[in-house]
TrEMBL record:
Transmembrane segments: none annotated. The keyword Transferase applies. This is Carbamate kinase. Residues 8-299 form the Aspartate/glutamate/uridylate kinase domain. GO terms for biological process: L-arginine deiminase pathway. Belongs to the carbamate kinase family. GO terms for molecular function: carbamate kinase activity. Pathway: Metabolic intermediate metabolism; carbamoyl phosphate degradation; CO(2) and NH(3) from carbamoyl phosphate: step 1/1.
Length: 316
């Protein structure tokens, strides 16, 4: 294990690829989670303090469809904030179980804690009038048109050229309500799994927290959580080794170490797809600017090579 003076506090944000499988069954998704948690356990066992957050876009969308399909007057569908809590709990449970099993296998003295986490947003956030966050499955054009017949109140948009998905409001996170608990868990050698799916969006109303309909982008919440718990590093794990200029074009170029001002120019030049790499870039910029610490965007397979300067490394 590393010396205490070298220990870093890291927030690791996992994309939906860390959970999704070829089918949507619990068995298949848990199998994917176990593979992911084996890698994350190795990071933790190297000696760093690691808090985990994750996406839930596919799961929350699928559960929303299930809720509405089976709804009746006697058994109405749950609202979106509650569905977010439900998926946060189920995914957190899968991750906690997989991590604890790995820790036991490796004889490592720690435990994971899945924390149902609330995230404060602004009720006047313009996102509530302009839904952009993709959730649920992908549809081709004809499938999307059929879905509109069944759900005329849903809004569908193209998602980075991969098909159509339902979109919902995605307000910006202002504060991770449970940040003090996350810090306390880390300081006592637990591994918190927190702010899943960006956290449950809540607003402050006369001193009370009220849930609202929306799904917060997990990358922005990861940056906010990293800021709120004074993390040394934000690591966003995705399907690619780096962020790229001219992605999927003949002149595609990997971005390695990059100063935040240069990355902002790349963002302004339109190099990153909305709903895909763009929010990861924006979250990395936000964390670096607010804390002065570095952010890394890379693939899950590079998670144990971070000290080798892999991926896109954003710094001041």
């Amino acid at each position: 294990m590393k010396e205490a003076t070298k220990m870093k506090k890291i927030v690791v944000a996992l994309g939906g690829n860390a959970i999704q499988a070829n089918d949507n069954s619990a068995t298949a998704q848990q199998k994917a989670v176990r593979k992911t948690m084996k890698v994350i356990a190795q990071m933790i066992e190297n000696g760093d303090q690691v808090a985990i957050t994750h996406g839930n876009g596919p799961q929350v969308g699928n559960l929303l469809l299930q809720q509405h399909k089976g709804a009746s007057d006697a058994n109405p569908a749950m609202p979106l904030d509650t569905i977010s809590a439900m998926t946060q709990g189920s995914i957190g449970y899968w991750m906690q179980k997989a991590l604890d099993d790995q820790f036991k296998h490796d004889n490592y003295p720690s435990q994971a804690v899945a924390l149902v986490t609330q995230t404060i947003v602004d009720i006047n956030d313009p996102a509530f009038n302009n839904p952009t966050k993709p959730i649920g499955p992908f549809y081709n054009f004809n499938e999307m048109q059929k879905q509109r017949i069944y759900h005329p109140d849903y809004i569908y948009k193209q998602d980075a050229g991969r098909g159509y998905r339902q979109v919902v409001a995605s307000p910006k996170p202002l504060e991770i309500v449970n940040a003090p608990i996350i810090k306390n868990l880390l300081n006592n050698n637990f591994v918190p799994i927190a702010a899943g799916g960006g956290g449950i969006p809540v607003v402050v109303d006369h001193g009370h927290l009220d849930g609202v309909a929306g799904v917060i982008d997990k990358d922005f919440s990861a940056a906010k959580m990293a800021e709120d718990i004074n993390a040394d590093e934000l690591v966003i794990l995705t399907t690619v080794d780096n962020a790229y200029l001219n992605y999927n074009e003949a002149n595609q170029t990997a971005i390695g170490k990059v100063k935040v001002d240069q990355l902002k120019q790349y963002l302004k030049d339109g190099h990153f797809a909305a709903g895909s790499m763009k929010p990861k870039i924006e979250a990395a910029i936000e964390f670096v600017e607010k804390t002065g610490n570095r952010a890394i965007i890379t693939s899950l397979r590079n998670a144990n090579k971070l000290n080798d300067e892999v991926g896109t490394i954003v710094y001041n």
